[in-house]
Design goal:
Blueprint: H1 11-24, H2 26-37, H3 60-67, H4 71-78, H5 86-96, H6 100-103
Helix pairs in contact: 3-4
């Protein structure tokens, strides 16, 4: 019978992955832009025809609005100080169009 080994998440390295997504992930940026501009009536929802600058960078403040948390919570996630909840991780994956294995890092 195989032995099952429990894995522990390395929250510091996982947080680093979250920060890199925030800084480089275009789908995440589009979601942030849409959530701000669509609510203001400035967005038609077609990112390909968007008149806004769609750089990849998204601020912690913008990301906090998507997750309905404070900017400090985002900072704590990215620094590995606070574990990210399962629901938030799954939402992150959905919005950023990545898999959970792209974000989570396990301790050896």
């Amino acid at each position: 019978m195989p032995i099952i080994t429990r894995k522990s998440i390395d929250w510091e390295k996982t947080g680093y992955n979250l920060e890199q997504l925030r800084l480089t992930n275009l789908p995440l940026r589009k979601k942030s832009c849409r959530s701000r501009t669509y609510a203001a009536g400035d967005c038609e929802g077609n990112c390909d025809q968007c008149r806004y600058d769609m750089d990849n960078l998204i601020s912690r403040s913008e990301l906090a609005k998507i997750f309905d948390v404070s900017e400090h919570v985002i900072y704590s996630w990215e620094r590995g100080r606070t574990p990210v909840g399962v629901e938030e991780l799954l939402l992150y994956c959905d919005i950023a169009e990545v898999s959970l294995s792209d974000i989570l890092v396990f301790k050896p």
